[in-house]
Design goal:
Length: 101
Amino acid sequence: MINELINKAMGIISEYCISDCDADCCKNGKTLKELGVKLNPCKYLINDRCKIYNERPTTCKNYPIRLDNVGVIINKCRVVEGGKIDEIIIKIKELNYKIYM
Ligand code: SF4
Ligand code: SF4
């Protein structure tokens, strides 16, 4: 159930990554920050597309929402801040998962 909700959130977010956001996270080093990698923009971002998309690091695949052993980690990317996954966040809370934003 929790994985379904996270996948649903990812699906909603990905609709806006290119059309509305122009890959803000990859341009501004947010995606790989947790790995201690400072690439602003990421060297794999070409014309707002990830050129290693299918082989991108796990941290990129899990951005901006992922399940951790402490709860659900949600980075405040543009789509999240725009409220597009608010309903899913409520459902995650109803399942008694802690949310860290
Ligand atoms: S910041 Fe969020 S909406 Fe923008 S490209 Fe990254 S994950 Fe997608
Ligand atoms: S590897 Fe791809 S998904 Fe990850 S930060 Fe770079 S461009 Fe973005």
